[in-house]
Automatic annotation (TrEMBL):
<dbReference type="InterPro" id="IPR043904">
    <property type="entry name" value="PhoD_2-like"/>
</dbReference>
<feature type="domain" description="PhoD-like phosphatase">
    <location>
        <begin position="57"/>
        <end position="194"/>
    </location>
</feature>
<dbReference type="Pfam" id="PF19050">
    <property type="entry name" value="PhoD_2"/>
</dbReference>
<dbReference type="InterPro" id="IPR038607">
    <property type="entry name" value="PhoD-like_sf"/>
</dbReference>
<dbReference type="GO" id="GO:0016020">
    <property type="term" value="C:membrane"/>
</dbReference>
<protein>
    <recommendedName>
        <fullName>PhoD-like phosphatase domain-containing protein</fullName>
    </recommendedName>
</protein>
Length: 223
């Protein structure tokens, strides 16, 4: 129904931003899922396991595992996600529209990218090019550094559907707190915020735009 409406209404739209609660693309934690699946079976079979009442959600699952089950990249949802991805690519090609995904709920920030896998065209001509902006609420506590580092050690590139490359890309250069050069550059365990601005041309960097337009003072007060 949503795609039918988009097919009808999406005319002369240059950029479609889709907001999703959880990221369409994110780090995979297969080992963690396996361990938590085992823990789930134990807690369901032996309900008196010490500390289980403190780690289980209202659904009887370990709290972290319950969160992982909600992710698009969990095996329970990945086929549905890939089907939606394919339809988004076809929509972008048919309507000549750039599509960007915006999500949070993972308490960190990063950028993922879908693009053509073979014979990669220039970005402006790649209808498969979809960026995933990951930006979680400022009030949420970021995950520990070791969790983010572990995410970098697993694969961060996949090939989900025909002729499509999916990757969490290197995006961050410096730690915002200290300005030191980062070794792990794909995900950042910081409280963060994100805003979108329509630009008439590409001759301004985001930093220039924020400074020249006095964006921070207007929206957040003097810093």
């Amino acid at each position: 129904m949503i795609f039918e409406k988009l097919n009808i209404d999406l005319e002369n739209v240059q950029h479609l931003i889709i907001i999703l609660a959880a990221p369409f693309s994110f780090a995979r934690f297969k080992v963690a899922e396996t361990l938590l699946e085992t823990w789930k079976k134990w807690t369901m079979k032996y309900q008196n396991i010490p500390f289980s009442e403190h780690t289980n959600s209202i659904f009887g699952l370990p709290e972290i595992y319950d969160d992982l089950l909600d992710e698009w990249i969990h095996e329970a949802h990945i086929k549905e996600r890939n089907c939606i991805l394919s339809r988004l690519q076809k929509l972008a090609e048919m309507k000549k529209t750039r599509i960007t995904l915006f999500s949070g709920d993972v308490h960190c920030c990063g950028i993922a990218r879908f693009r053509t896998r073979n014979n990669i065209p220039s970005p402006i001509h790649d209808s498969k090019l979809i960026y995933q902006i990951i930006s979680s609420a400022i009030v949420n506590r970021p995950p520990p550094n070791f969790v983010i580092r572990a995410a970098h050690l697993f694969s961060t590139k996949w090939y989900p559907i025909t002729n499509t490359e999916e990757e969490i890309i290197n995006f961050f250069d410096q730690a915002p707190e200290y300005g030191v050069k980062l070794f792990f550059r794909k995900l950042l365990p910081n409280r963060d915020w994100c805003y979108f601005e329509q630009c008439e041309s590409m001759d301004r960097t985001p930093t220039d735009s924020i400074t020249q337009d006095n964006f921070l003072d207007k929206n957040f007060g003097p810093l």
